Amino acid sequence: MDRRSFLKAGVAAGSVAAAGGLSAPAYSQAANRTLRFVPQANLANFDPIWGTQYVVRNASVLVWDTLYGFDEKLEPQRQMVEGEEVSADGKTWTFKLREGLRFHDGEPVRARDVVASINRWMPRDPMGQLLRAINVELSAVDDRTFRWVLSAPFTKMKMALGKNATPMCFIMPERIASRFDSFTQINEYVGSGPMRFVRNEWVPGARAVFQRFDQYVPRNEPASWLAGGKRMMVDRVEWVIMPDPATAAAALQNGEIDWWENPITDLVPVLRRNRNIAVDIADPLGNIGSFRMNHLHAPFNNVKVRQAVMTALSQQDYMTALVGSDQNLWKVMGGFFTPGTPLYTEEGGEMMKAANMERGRQMLRESGYAGEPVVCLVAQDQPITKAQGDVTADLLKRLGMNVEYVATDWGTVGQRRAMKNPPGQGGWGMFHTWHAGADAINPVLYNAVRANGDGAWFGWPTVPAVEAEVPNWLAATTLEQERAAIGRLNRAAVENVVYCPTGFFLGYQAWRRNVSGIVKGPIPFAWGVSKS
Amino acid sequence: MFAYVVRRVLATIPVMAVVALFVFSLLYIAPGDPAAVIAGDQATPQDVERIRESLGLDRPYLVRFSAWVWDILRGDLGVSIFTNLPVSTMIAQRIEPTLSLMIVTLILAISIAVPMGVVAAWKQGTLIDRAVMAFAVLGFSVPVFVVGYLLAYYFALEWDLLPVQGYTPFSEGFWPWLENLILPAIALGSVYIALIARITRATMLEVLQQDYIRTARAKGVGQRAILFLHALKNAAVPIVTVIGIGIALLIGGAVVTESVFAIPGLGRLTVDAILRRDYPVIQGVVLLFSFVYVLVNLAIDLLYTLFDPRIRY
């Protein structure tokens, strides 16, 4: 016990004993039932369908439950669902809910709540949109059964309803889900997950509090990411928002917080030197760094220019700038999907790993590039985009391109990247971002790899050969078929440079050693985590 | 006097109107899109557009401005785009930490800086004077966040005497409240102490040359009485002015201090709102700060009459 805690515990125990209340051990036990966690960002809103930021999703998994949940093998397992039946033609799915499911307001979870929640989720989600396009009827049969009739088979149903990519299909009470459309924020935070959201203690930008929901009935299977029994070992989880990493590091060392989701690499050696702190990889699925080029305007409307840039870029440079020289933290990619996951392939990916500046210069000369300025948007308030932007500016200059470096913030990049105007009229040439590895595991969840023109993500690439493989993957019934489709997709995406991945990288998490049960995963799962 | 106060209070109305117009226009022309932030990085352009429409951000300038002004006239600062909470609620949640930080900083700064300045003037040219001036230069030169990190490192991490971060409401006890504010107040107050100490020294030096001080000495008045009763009272007007001007310095410094010490105050609320383009919150907070600043100036003007009976309104 440290000096200040000792003094405080003494004072607290004394006052409590004087008041005839809890004994000193009981006081200490109460403190051990609260987990203080520093998330990656501020929980500025709390509607996982309306706002699809990862931090909202991460808080939402505590409060709202899902029909299925991904386990650590990325396989969807039943969660709220007890069982499902699929008709012989694959077009009708009938689901039955588990017994004993309750919302935090005490109401039972009924099939009509599920129907309303799915209807609210579908318009915002890529897989939901696919389902919506073939939806014939989604209806509640009775309180625990709902049926979904489709106009075509959809083999990835469980994946759609159980994926952890945002927006997840969270189940809300019908009175909330049907009152607010997908683009309007809810104002009641009632779920059926293992924790209740304590709204009156929520101070956006400072704190969010979750209290254990005693009526939650976890599944019997052991927890595995979003699947299995979500057993809360603490009564209360407090999210403490700390914008400054140095403060979070000091607070963790001082025992003022228990668990920090994303310590920056620079501070990891300091944390490792503290014997009370454990540091480990946060998410084995990691992240993919990227910059996107605007396919609508010169110079990047010319595939040869895009190829020249991809040939010249060195992923090693980007990764060193992002996470340092520790090669356990990053990997050079030859494909667009998350390394280590079933669909990762390097088919046709030689250009991504080339890192050949001379060849790149030659390709640029041959491309007909006429010195058009490249408006390079770089958000300075995000360390990941800032580091990548600096490397890109240097890369393009060495390549012989005319770079207009626009140092700005993420809010401005978010607005400007949506503009389709030419770069000289408020538009843009390229911007930097990154993709969570958990989202880049198949072509439907991973909108960055899609190339369907106006319907594609910012940059609006049009590559029919990429798009042709998406339905092939959806229709595949075996992993071999899926891999074959993804191999062809990867080749086409590289040849046409849909975007430029800058490497695969991992991040850290850190916690006090008196905390146990923390697992590596794409979300900081609080179930199974206890304090001693 | 009463008529003067009423006149000054009424004069805040056009000032606030100009501030409102200025803030709204500035935010309107500033780049950035809250809809893009809400939608998340993976959202499609179509999603972003739908959210923008649902928030009414696609409406023309005049429509949005008049709606906002109408709400303000009815005492409604609006609702945060992000949190869906009323701006007044968000300000109420955050005002106590900022107010506490500023009060503790003010008390700390005045109680240290004024005696420092007085003593430096009294001991002009000595080692004490030079030490005070060296401290003042240091206070001006070292950024608040550097002072903050150093304090946190030694007082919290090395010596384990005070917490690194956070805020405990006053209602939970005086010491828990104060222990979270000591380090931030020292960090925030360092510039302020330097400023007040310098101005106190300079003004005191001037006053100490006056005939009435010589007369007081000739009459055998003690040194302490001369310094603190005769000289300081006559030097008070510029010192009070600097303290008043320094409130703006404190508001600016609070933004950094609250971030370094993770204090959930108005400074952090403002920065978060700016980064997210949460227009109603930015507008509400800026209006509040402007109003406070106008009131502080009024209070300073009224304080002049207390220290200098020749001043009449």
Automatic annotation (TrEMBL), chain A:
The lineage of its organism: Bacteria, Pseudomonadati, Pseudomonadota, Alphaproteobacteria, Acetobacterales. It holds the Pfam family SBP_bac_5. This is ABC transporter substrate-binding protein. Coiled coil: none annotated. SUPFAM superfamilies: Periplasmic binding protein-like II (SSF53850). Residues 76-417 form the Solute-binding protein family domain. The keyword Cell inner membrane does not apply. It comes from Falsiroseomonas bella. It is found in: Periplasm. Gene3D superfamilies: Dipeptide-binding Protein, Domain 3, Periplasmic binding protein-like II. Belongs to the bacterial solute-binding protein 5 family. GO terms for biological process: peptide transport. The keyword S-adenosyl-L-methionine does not apply. Keywords: Signal. One of its GO terms (molecular function) is peptide transmembrane transporter activity.
Automatic annotation (TrEMBL), chain B:
One of its GO terms (molecular function) is dipeptide transmembrane transporter activity. Residues 95-304 form the ABC transmembrane type-1 domain. PROSITE patterns: ABC_TM1. It is found in: Cell membrane. InterPro entries: BPD_transp_1_N, MetI-like, MetI-like_sf. It comes from the Bacteria. It is a multi-pass membrane protein. The keyword Cell division does not apply. Belongs to the binding-protein-dependent transport system permease family. This is Peptide ABC transporter.
